[in-house]
Amino acid sequence: MQACPLNSKDLLKLRCRFRTGQYTLNDLTSDSTIDELLQTITSLIGVTQSRISLYYGYPPKKLDCSISSLSKHLWEIPIRSGDMLTVDVTEEKPANVNSQNVKLQSHKHEIISNKQSESHIVRLCAPSDNSCLFTSVLFCMNNEDNHLKIGTKVITNIAEVSNLRELISGIVLSDPIKYSEAFLGMSNEQYSNQIRQILFEAQQLASKARAEWAFTDLSSFTLLCRQCDAPLVGQEAAQKHAQLTGHTQFREITH
Predict the structure, then answer these.
(1) Alpha-carbon radius of gyration of the chain
(2) pTM score
(3) DSSP 4
(4) What is the β-pairing status of strands 52-56 and 231-233?
(5) CB proximity list for 170: less than 8 A, separation 6 or greater
(6) Where do the structural domains in the chain lie, given as residue ranges?
(7) 131-212 matches 11-89 in CATH topology
(8) DSSP characters for 152-201?
(9) Does domain 11-89 have CATH number 3.40.50.2300?
(10) Could you report the per-residue pLDDT of 227-254, keeping only the tens digit for each?
């Protein structure tokens, strides 16, 4: 049996993930009970405790929220500061459903099922260049209207990725309370600096590549990008390709 920690009265920082978003719970201690934890969560999302299933730890384990366990302290679970809690809320079923409603719901479900049967998931790979997350987000945003063909190749656009990194860095720095160490896994300033450092390294790499091309006459022969197999003719084409994609590895194609 675990012993009660000496700092059981210290406030915990718990990240709580819901379907609608994520919150940080700051008003509980290790000495708080499961019942108090559930009350805090229900007050945030406005549902009854009976509709809540709570998961903690990694891999996620379901928390026993039965009546006999409600008096347990969080340190007994154990749930510690910085832990991520996942809240699953069951749908509330109407008390009285007549046969007409059942028919309408069945018909609605049939339509949804038919629409879903026409959908499918396509797995695309973003370049592994320290910007794959940003590249993936930008790809989805730019294809919001589904105008791109299925299987379109995902490439890194350094200019757009740089703008997105700067935007996120600024947002994180502007709200250190929301984007706290418990939320980010590191300090607010450290997270922002890390994003900017990767951006700086990418810019340095692009500058180095441009400097190398400046001393080489690439106006008349053909290059092949080693990273995406794109054929390029001339210095300007190679420079433009590097600026758009961040690719810097080329080889000459000899005839």
Answers:
(1) 26
(2) 0.38
(3) P
(4) unpaired
(5) none
(6) 11-89, 131-212, 222-252
(7) no
(8) PPP---HHHHHHHHHHHHHHHHH-TTTS-HHHHSS-HHHHHHHHHHHHHH
(9) no
(10) 787 888 877 787 788 878 877 777 776 6
Please state which CATH number belongs to domain 131-212.
3.90.70.80
Nearest to 123 by CA among 93, 152, 159: 152
Strands 52-56 and 250-253 turn out to be unpaired
Location of structure tokens 């008390």: 95
Structure tokens at 152: 């379109």
So what's the pLDDT on residue 71?
Answer: 92
As beta bridge partners, residue 62 has 55
What residue type is 57 in one-letter code?
G
Structure tokens at 46: 């406005």
Nearest to 230 by CA among 124, 153, 161: 153
Q: Which residues are within 8 A (CB) of 134 and not within 5 positions of it... i.e. 6 or more apart?
A: 161, 164, 165
